[in-house]
DNA sequence: CCGAATAGATCTAGAGCCTAGATTTATCCG
DNA sequence: CGGATAAATCTAGGCTCTAGATCTATTCGG
């Protein structure tokens, strides 16, 4: 911060080493100079110089728990450093169709505050393009500002904001304009939020689910490097994490599932929650259900997916048939995507993961029985409704981590 | 080379700058210190130091055509440097099912020598796993050694060898063992070739086609960053270049096309050349062809794809119908892959690009007529039979370019 | 043919960053 | 309280970079 370098200069080396140390600092609770020496191969003098540098910049804190931890027995106790997790924060905004949730989290990803607003529903008929876009941008900004306020951090400490939307998003943060829904849910948040943080990024919600799942997996042992995260509910979207990185495609449309209308045994890109209801209603109205059918007693107008699952649990044959059909459908989708992309694992989130676990069980069984040696494993997301927000946080943290040294973390005004 | 560094040291900076300069040197014919200053933002003194360094290592030559080129008008003429393209070479081996072709190329990718051998055909019945594997490894080594010998370069100048095989290949260069064909065509070349070059890499042939097409496109203007390269002949394989990088998947199986048996209007992963012959034979044997049909006159036992195309060109209705069917099939494949991966462009190589251009024309027309706003463009590869070899060369060059400074190029023994 | 004008090459300090090794400091242990 | 031990600090020296002065090769106009 104190000096801006033209091109490359002697200080570049220092910056490089600082980067290496800081990056490792993210993965541990605290560390000593000896740890950093092992990480980097640098001399103790150098490492200490680098750490001092990072402390001065606000990235590291010197934590004096050398004796408290009890990690050592003999010799002079080592100074210990730790990522200054309260020095800066990031914000993740889950900007869904009918609600928005902003989460403020520290540099470790621990949520500090959360704020939610509901949004009036819109249909292609009731939409007012410009007004609704403007309203949505205002909702987003207000939700984020509320979350920041209730977290109690200085707004200047926000280094990055990530917004998750249910639409494909290209490198510049835009969604294709030829679709009313995409245009509605991604009305160009960039300019509205630009003032709130040095980094603002829009991202597809399924991609964020993929990132969230990856972060969780990494937490428990080794990360999986190729998997697909599917958001299955009213529609189907997917985030493709292949070879350890997210596949976006030309216009951010990678993972779109329209092609399912050409797959045998699928035939449409509809979401399984939608189909579950549609098939149940069809069965009820067909009048072919047997006398005491549980499914038959449901009201077609207020019926929900979970009602069908309950009926099936209670042994209703027609409900079981619907879930079986949905399970087979999901299995076929997994096989197709798994084959083309050679992934290990498909993680399903969205409405279906919560409301229709039996569908996922059924699809798992079908996959296990298949003779395909490369059939992927299928699991339900365990992240629940905060999944997209969590992914947004982790994505934002990744952005901060990448460019950490360009972003001095706040002016270190201790509260 | 003269000193091995422990961890990071002051010399790291020099290495970093050398890397930057050298990397740019690859993209230009020759350059002056002023050019390098613009690239790197370094001082003239520093740049000249770096260039001297690279000349001493053998990567650059000082070319004294300052006045010959006529690039300047006034002032002291600048010293000019150029990548020493003859200082080192790479080898690409196209290791197909029934033949192998090795190509030796200089650091610019210009072919210097080529050597081909035919390989006895094998079927699941006639195969002798161990003996055939050993024979194939020997063929590969011999073909490469022949090509190097006929190129006249010192074998120690070979910095990298890439082998392209018609099978999925994982990070370690292995193909899944559960398939006789894959096991046959990739019998583990790594250990056999390890002595011939410091870098040896096995890669899938469709991936190499993708790299070759990318290198060609980059040559003529800006490179496309998301496209699919398909090798269509007896089977269909594809190389997925998305967001500027090759998608491999867990076991290197990304781009496999077995899932096509689940796509409506396709139904099998068979190659279009195979189907073309099969359908033609079926038509001939069905006895339903009209009296003077050109197609009817062909001998089912010796018929080739190009015969069908010729018949269609001459107006034969049955032949035209076959090509139309093939074209529709190809269009559907493009739509499915294009949708899931959001690619701009599908490039088709293999037997079909040469023998059945009408199929590609027909598929192009179908795609253009489709109401899909994201339908990819379809083009035939123009690289011909050397495509895989060219891709192998470019892949090897990429590897050399990445690790250039770890590989001093030869001992500079001028011929 | 000669002397500006021009632009690249070289030279000279000086500063930053790193290493290696000697010295000092903080702590445990008997 | 005096080793033993491991971390921190200090010192000297080397490498690489920058900035700016000086030198050199060439064109061009008179």
Short overview:
Chain A has three domains: 11-83, Orthogonal Bundle (Arc Repressor Mutant, subunit A), CATH 1.10.10; 89-197 and 388-406, ATPase, nucleotide binding domain (Nucleotidyltransferase, domain 5, 2-Layer Sandwich), CATH 3.30.420; 227-382, Nucleotidyltransferase, domain 5, CATH 3.30.420.40. Chain A has 14 helices and 13 strands.
Fold blueprint:
The structure is a homodimer of 415-residue chains.
Chain A (H helix, E strand, L loop, with lengths): L10 H15 L5 E2 H8 L3 H14 L2 E4 L2 H4 L10 E4 L5 E7 L3 E8 L4 E8 L10 H23 L6 E8 L14 H6 L3 H5 L5 E6 H15 L7 E6 L3 E7 L2 E3 L24 H15 L18 H9 L3 H25 L3 E5 L1 H5 L1 H13 L7 E4 L6 H16 L13
Parallel strand pairs in A: 4-7, 7-8, 9-12, 12-13
Antiparallel strand pairs in A: 1-3, 2-3, 4-5, 5-6, 9-10, 10-11
Helix pairs in contact in A: 1-3, 2-3, 8-14, 9-11, 10-11, 11-13
The structure holds a DNA duplex (30 and 30 nucleotides).
Key attributes of the depicted protein:
415 residues; 5-stranded mixed sheet; DNA-binding; Arc Repressor Mutant, subunit A; disordered C terminus; Nucleotidyltransferase, domain 5; 14 helices; alpha/beta; homodimer; 13 strands; globular
Mean pLDDT of chain A: 91
Q: What is the CATH topology assignment of the largest domain in chain A?
A: Nucleotidyltransferase, domain 5
Provide the gyration radius of chain A in Å. Answer: 25 Å
Topology of chain A as a string of helices (H) and strands (E): HEHHEHEEEEHEHHEHEEEHHHEHHEH
Q: Which CATH class of the largest domain in chain A applies here?
A: Alpha Beta
Largest interface: A-B, 49 and 49 residues
Low-confidence runs of at least 5 consecutive residues of chain A: 1-7, 411-415
* Total strands of chain A: 13
**Lateral arrangement of strands in the main beta sheet of chain A:** 6-5-4-7-8
Class per helix and strand makeup of chain A: alpha/beta
Largest sheet of chain A: 5 strands, mixed
Beta-strand content of chain A: 15-25%
CATH superfamily of the largest domain in chain A: ATPase, nucleotide binding domain
> First CA to last CA of chain A: what distance?
22 Å
CATH architecture label name of the largest domain in chain A = 2-Layer Sandwich
Based on Cα principal axes, name the global outline of chain A. globular
**How helix-rich are the residues of chain A, as a percent range?**
40-55%
What quaternary form is this? homodimer
